[in-house]
Amino acid sequence: AELVVDPDARTTVGNAYNALNDIGRVGAREVVVVTSRFHAPRAQAAFRLLLAHRRIRVTSAFPPEPRNLRASLGELPLWLLLPAQLWHARRIRR
Question: Number of C-alpha atoms within 13 angstroms, CB side, residue 24?
């Protein structure tokens, strides 16, 4: 197993897109996205969407923290940005 940390990404999608080369380089069959409980669903979705054409399992892991309603609600508008972020990430990295 290899742990990859991206110090340059400024968004969830940017982080996922930056990881694609590492995922391909090591021939990964599974990606574990490590993040907070409230952020895990969107982060996992970003990785799944970017890896949809590959046969790579995407899961998430997060610390045993209590649910945070405020943080979870803060994620809702960011879900709406996900398609535009994916389009933008693909466009600028070609």
Answer: 10
